[in-house]
Amino acid sequence: DQQVKQNSPSLSVQEGRISILNCDYTNSMFDYFLWYKKYPAEGPTFLISISSIKDKNEDGRFTVFLNKSAKHLSLHIVPSQPGDSAVYFCAARDLHGSSNTGKLIFGQGTTLQVKP
Amino acid sequence: EPEVTQTPSHQVTQMGQEVILRCVPISNHLYFYWYRQILGQKVEFLVSFYNNEISEKSEIFDDQFSVERPDGSNFTLKIRSTKLEDSAMYFCASSRGEGGTGELFFGEGSRLTVL
Question: Which stretches of chain B drop beneath a pLDDT of 70?
């Protein structure tokens, strides 16, 4: 049951350049999409989210784009910094199909390495 | 800033033993969750808890698992008879509710190693 997919297990970029992390989903009932950042041996930390009724949300160096027709979202980090090196998880909330529990369904994660 | 806290950070146990993982969610949150991550795999939903009862559980959350909110602040996950495949990081999370941006706040995790 892969409702949320991150097809790239890893990404390496140079410091100062743009990092683009991608995520695809299958369930059109998702109402919010979120990106989490995770360091080893720590819990996921919320980064940015976007409502299904929007196509872009920006917060500082982080921008999330949503393409509902393609069921695709992406996270752009500009400029990338070495401290951004972590695992990035895409997640989606299905408020209608999950008994209103607000649970999140996570993708497999993409390991981002930003080289100095 | 309020945070979700989990104990223990690491527990080693023998197969067949009972384990209890503890969590203190953020105080004004209403929904509580347990997730787990087996090494190198995705973060998987186990169970959600609202209004003192389980609101949803995954296929992973079988009869060996149980959750409890014993005293209004703690939220515990019990594994009755641990198996080798239960070895994973277990994350507790909480949220304000069904409104908002959907953000779940996660704890640092409890690493369970079953030998």
Answer: 98-100
